[in-house]
Structure formats: C-alpha cells, structure tokens
Amino acid sequence: MTLSELVDGLVTCSSNIEIKGLSLDSRKVQKGFVFIAVAGANEHGLLYLHQAIKNGANAVIYDPNGSGSFSLKGLKIDCLAVKNLGLKIGRIASRFYQLPSTLLDVIGVTGTNGKTTCSQFLLQIMPNCGVIGTLGWGEKGTLKKTVNTTPDALAIQSMLADFVHSNIKTVVMEVSSHGLHQGRVNTIHFKGALFINLSRDHLDYHGSMEDYLQAKLMLFKQADLQFAIVNTDDKTSKIFLAATDKKVKQWAFSVTGNKSQLTENVVANEIESGLNGIKFYCYWRNEKTRVKTKIVGDFNLENLLAVITVLLAQGYSLNNAADMIENLVPVKGRMESFGGNEKPFVFVDYAHTPSALKKLLECLRKYCQQKLFLVFGCGGNRDQGKRKQMGTIAENLADHIVLTDDNPRFESPENIINDIIKGFKNKHVEIIQNREKAIQKVIKQANQNDCVIIAGKGHEDYQEINGVLHPFSDQDIVSCALQNWTASI
C-alpha cells in the first residue's frame, strides 16, 4: 500500500512510497514503516520522531495539536498532519490491514462486571473463535498478553488481521468504556453487541455515571450491528436498546423473569445454585431446556444466560447451547475455586467494584456453612470514592475482614486502607498490608466449613508498586497455604 492510499480522505498526499508497517512505538519501527505520533496526555509522540527515523521510518503521521514545539523542517521523510489523530488511527490501521473486521463475526461485550467471564466462556465453547480482552488475545490455549482490556486501535486491527489469516470465524472482544471513549474500536465492524450490567467504576476517568453510561452506549450505536443483547434485570437496559438502530435485531435475557417487548427473550427459572455449580431451566420462545454447569456463583447465572443468548443470536439451537454450556470450566481469577474436600473453600475473584464485591459476598454468604472470611484492598490512583462503599459492603456481609494491599501503584497503601476503613461503623477489621501474609494467615485460621474470599486481583500475576510490576499470584499463595493447612483442634 502506498502512503497516499493509506491517508486518502484524511489529508492531501501524493506520495507513492510503499508502506510496510505502522507503529505508535518508535522502538518498534522498522525500515519502510510509518510512525504515528499522537498527542498524549503527558507528552507528544513527536518527541520520539528522530528515533523512529533512525530505525527506518519513511513517513510520520502526527497530530498537529501540541506539535508547535517540534521542528519538522529539513526532515527527509513525509510529514503529514492529521487533526484529532487519536480518533482516526483505527481508520488508518483498518485500511492498512485490508478491513479485517469485515471478514469476521466480531461480537463486542461491554458492562461493568462480567466482560471477561462472558468472553472467555464463549472462547471455550465456540468453534473457530478468538478473543481480545483482559486475559489476552488469541485462540483458546494460546493467549498472548494485552496491556489493556481493549488494546489501542492499531494493535486491535493487527490482531483482527491475524485472526483472518488463521481462519478464525468469530472474535469476541471485551469493549471497555475507555476504549470506546478514546476511539480504539472506531471502524471495527461489529456484528453483535452484548451489554451485561452497569454499576460504579472508572469515575476517576469519566467523572460521572452519566458520562460512563454514554461511553458504553457507543458500542450499541455502531452502524453495522446485526444484533444487540441486553440484560433486562439492569435498569439501564432500555437505554441501550433505545440506542440501537431499528434494523438491529434485539435480544434480552433475565434471571428474574423480566421480559422486554419487541425483543427475543431468554429467561432462567427453577434455579438451583450451590458451591458445586448451577442448574436451571432456560426458556426461549416456546422452548425449554435444562442447563447444568460446574460454574459457581449466583451472579454467574447472569453471565451464563448472556452466553446462551449470544449463541442463539449466532444461530445455535437452545438444546445445542445448553449442551455447550455444560462443558464450561471457571475462568482464571473469576470465582476460581480452591480447597473443599475437608478443607476450607477458597475463592479467588477479580471483584474490584462495589457491585461485584457485593454480589460475590451475597452469593457465598448464602452457601457458607460457617464463617465467611474476606481478604481485599483497593487499587491506587483509581476511583477513590468506591473505597468507602466497598468497606461498608464488606462489613455488612463478611464475618472476618483483612484489609491488605492490592496494586497501590504510586499511592500510599496506608491512605488507600484508611479510605476503605471510612466505610466501617464498628471498625472491627484486621490490617495486614503484606498481601501474601494476609492470605496465608486467613487460610490458616479458617476451618473446613468456612469460606475464604481473596478479592480484587483475580487473574493478575503481578503487584504494581511505584511503577514496578512485582511477580505475585493470589492463586499460587492460596494453593501453598491450603497444602500446609491443618484443621484446628
């Protein structure tokens, strides 16, 4: 592809130099690449232009905003200014990679909680399926790491092109509010959109729940949608349906019997739930089938129904969908179960929002035979307002609470814990900042009929402190603690 073909319609260019690649990172530029220099929050990409040229860049596309302090005179490469470049990278990258999303069934999954669980469930059971999300991108069993839940626009288009070359048919993508607001999914042709739920999160970025909602709605306003799925048990579901074009087929699912007019309704009834899994009857149109799963957690019923609805929208029969669901296994760090068999049940979960923590505790409160232990903290440099709320939820629902460090990042761990403590009325809480020691102590204290929750980090295999990622796995510490566990006399 020539440079003029790449930027056609964005900026006037007559250059016919051949483009061999695109990069936002000057360190990854190779000979014949175009370096894309975005105006970031802290610095402009042009700061690294000379390194990109040294590495072989033959052109730069840059955002003129904030570029005044950089001199481009005398450079022997094409320099093209594109206003609001950050929102147009997807268009440029999609063109370079030959519009890969048009050759795939791309299903976008959004919501506050459950995106990863739903996308990973679909990856487990759908043939020729790929995923892009929190746990990585790729095919089942071969996931590569991603920096963000929704990667940057250039990376996404490259991933989609890779899926096309690998003969993947369906791609399930976690679509975050950040990714939508920042235009990372612009120009992706989504076949389907799934909304799971909406509760407080990321207000440090969006500022208000209304702005957070508006960001999520952008997925349902995509021009090429063929189907849209919502959870009618969430009070905002009607807003999501209203945002879709009239030609889009609408689906709704509910665990409480809520039905929406003018949509296909998928409903669960006769629900049996416990520490060994969930059983229920699923109703759609005039059909009914029994669904049995090994998945634990009342809140996971919402995710299971969402997955069934996606399968129905993709053309599977209800009986086929039920059979596929039966083969699901828990997702790493999402209600991941350890212990049992005369040892305490221990659950590692990513719950890091008030809503997720509440649902998690309410579920295990119902099935725990004796004490319910909770180990959790909150991430640094994120929404501070949710910390007090999570403290209140913990005090109301757990028997014994240990506050510990999560990912303090650049914030004082003591300040984070003090913010959580503000939500407690009686202040009956133990503080062990060392997360490993906190987990070990709680599991050692627990008896065989107790339940222990380790919340907040889930799948993460690191702890972020002052910009450094230290290797850390809740799962490894839990497994070791259970091996050394002995029943108290």
SSE arrangement:
Blueprint lengths: L2 H4 L14 E3 L9 E5 L11 H6 L4 E4 L15 E4 L7 H8 L8 E6 L4 H11 L3 E5 L2 E4 L13 H13 L4 E5 L2 H5 L8 E6 L7 H4 L2 H9 L9 E5 L5 H7 L5 E6 L9 E11 L2 E8 L2 E7 L4 H16 L4 H8 L10 E4 L5 E5 L4 H14 L4 E5 L8 H13 L2 E4 L9 H9 L8 E2 L3 H11 L5 E5 L6 E4 L2 E4 L2 H10 L6
Parallel strand pairs: 1-2, 2-3, 3-4, 5-8, 5-9, 6-8, 9-10, 10-11, 11-12, 16-20, 17-18, 17-20, 18-19
Antiparallel strand pairs: 6-7, 12-13, 13-14, 15-16, 21-22
Sum up the structure in keywords:
489 residues, alpha/beta, Udp-n-acetylmuramoylalanyl-d-glutamate--2,6- Diaminopimelate Ligase, Chain: A, domain 1, UDP-N-acetylmuramoyl-L-alanine:D-glutamate ligase, Protein-Tyrosine Phosphatase, Chain A, six-stranded mixed beta sheet, globular
Describe this structure as you would to a colleague.
- The protein has 489 residues and is α/β, with parallel strands linked by helices.
- It folds into three domains: 85 residues, MurE/MurF, N-terminal domain (Udp-n-acetylmuramoylalanyl-d-glutamate--2,6- Diaminopimelate Ligase, Chain: A, domain 1); 228 residues, UDP-N-acetylmuramoyl-L-alanine:D-glutamate ligase (3-Layer(aba) Sandwich); 148 residues, Protein-Tyrosine Phosphatase, Chain A (Alpha-Beta Complex), CATH 3.90.190.20.
- Helices cover 30% and strands 23% of the residues.
- The chain is built from 16 helices and 22 strands.
- A hairpin with a 2-residue loop joins strand 21 and strand 22.
- Percentage of residues in strands: 15-25%
CATH class of the largest domain: Alpha Beta
Largest β-sheet summary = 10 strands, mixed
CATH architecture of the largest domain: 3-Layer(aba) Sandwich
Total individual domains: 3
Question: What is the count of DSSP helices, taking H or I runs of 4+ residues?
Answer: 16
| DSSP strand tally | 22
Mean pLDDT: 94
Spans of 5+ residues with little confidence (pLDDT < 50)? none
Radius of gyration (Å) = 24 Å
Helix percentage: 25-40%
User: What is the molecular shape?
Assistant: globular
The CATH H-level superfamily of the largest domain is Mur-like, catalytic domain
Task: Give the structural class.
Answer: alpha/beta
CATH topology of the largest domain: UDP-N-acetylmuramoyl-L-alanine:D-glutamate ligase
Termini separation (Å)?
Answer: 74 Å
Strand order of the largest sheet: 7-6-8-5-9-10-11-12-13-14
Oligomer: single chain
